[in-house]
Amino acid sequence: MSRRLHIVIDDAIPFIRGVLEPFFDVSYIPGIEITNQNLKNAEGLVVRTRTICDSSLLNQTPVRFVATATIGTDHLDTLYLNQQGIQWMHAPGCNALSVCQYVLAAIFEILYETKKPLTETTLGIVGVGHIGSRLYPLAKALGIHCLLCDPPRADEDKENDYLSLMEVLSQSDIVSLHVPLIQQGLYPTQHLINDTHLKKMPSHAYLINSSRGPVVDNQALSYHLKEKTIAGAILDVWEEEPNLNKTLLNQVMIGTPHIAGYSQDGKANATSQVVRGIGNAFDIEPLKTFDLHLEKQTLEIEPLVEDDFLSLRAIFKKTYDIRKDSLLLKHSPDNFETFRKNYPVRREPRAYELKTLIKKENIRRVLEKLGFHLCVDSHFV
Predict the structure, then answer these.
(1) Cis omega (within 30 of 0) on the bond before 242?
(2) Neighbours of 78 (CB within 10 A)
(3) Looking at 90, 130, 258, 340, which residue is catalytic?
(4) Which of 9, 59, 169, 287 shows its CA 20 to 30 Å from the CA of 18?
(5) Is 241 a catalytic residue?
(6) What single DSSP character describes residue 115?
(7) What top-level class would CATH report for the domain 96-255?
(8) Residue 341 and residue 338: Cα distance in Å, rounded?
(9) CA 5 from chain center: how many Å?
């Protein structure tokens, strides 16, 4: 009898246990503990960001397929994988709406602190790919004015409304970064935001980074926060994480342990994409159309206050309280990885059927644009 194919999987990837076992021998190992020895009889590997997939990990192994259940690929040595003929895949867009939820939660908290109206706020979106392109209409639904920056797309399409990075930084009240980590080439993003760029931001402006830690020069950001040349920052990603700069953590308005994309919905999307990729790579028909469907949840909201902003913030905060994540990390920064591994269930707005007495038609329209499903017995006047 021939040996069954073997796949090694990061043990923190959700919803995947039991799915592949009918077709493979499966080993579940913590991502940071996966070694070359673990792969000596493995044809497949499924990872997240904590496993660096390069020659030192894969040399002289039978691995012929690598999947990462993440949007980013900076932990994959794609040049090496291509040279060795190893198929690889990632999960583009899988958690885009989860990251958008994080960014909107951050914006609500910034504007709650500053008392600046939504309609008088300018948001600069740097990177208009899977995430930035989804954030744009959501922010517009709230009445926020948006400026877009995406040099690669601007060069491809000369008839567009994209601004330069410096223009976006100088004209925005809030800047949100949504770029991959690229170290070389025409459009490198390593330290895309450095001392020079931070000097361009108005003193009342805030920076949000939920992309990759090294996209922002953390030392420069710490200096500018100390000197109060910008008003504040919200960081989900850090240079050298999980060994983040604790001084910077204490300086930022909100700091979280790389969990912006950690909604259950985003994780389900990523796992579904990975399983379908495995099905295609190993020609297993039942896996080629695999799709996880999570049940919707009912969200009951107490009668809302008259203020539109406070109403929207209260509803949004029911789906995600970003300050809770920040308080946990600031209290115990050494538990960065523990927080990620044991992250509580978070669902995106589209997962909720909203049950509440809503008196304003404009609030109903905004909630629908944000993704909420409004129960038929909700009352609109």
Answers:
(1) yes
(2) 15
(3) 258
(4) 59
(5) yes
(6) -
(7) alpha beta
(8) 5
(9) 32
Both structure tokens of 117:
């109206």
Asked about 340 being catalytic, the answer comes back as no
Question: What CATH code is assigned to 6-90+264-288?
Answer: 3.40.50.720
Q: How far apart are CA 107 and CA 125, in angstroms?
A: 12
Which amino acid is present at 35?
T
- Residue boundaries of the structural domains of the chain: 6-90+264-288, 96-255
Catalytic residue among 241, 346, 347, 348: 241
Q: Do domains 6-90+264-288 and 96-255 have the same CATH topology?
A: yes
Pick the catalytic residue from 212, 224, 313, 347.
Answer: 212
Length of the chain: 381
**Can you tell me the distance from the alpha carbon of 138 to that of 11, in angstroms, rounded to the nearest whole number?**
34
Active site residue 258: yes
Q: Mind listing the pLDDT tens digit of every residue in the chain (381 residues)?
A: 467 999 999 999 999 999 999 999 999 999 999 999 999 999 999 999 889 999 999 999 999 999 999 988 989 999 999 999 999 999 999 999 999 999 999 999 999 999 999 999 999 999 999 999 999 999 999 999 999 999 999 998 877 889 999 999 999 999 999 999 999 899 999 999 999 999 999 999 999 999 999 999 999 999 999 999 999 999 999 999 999 999 999 999 999 999 999 999 999 999 999 999 999 999 999 999 999 989 999 988 776 667 889 989 999 999 999 999 999 999 999 999 999 989 999 999 999 998 877 778 888 899 999 999 988 554 443
Q: Per the structure block, which two tokens stand in for 208?
A: 């949000």
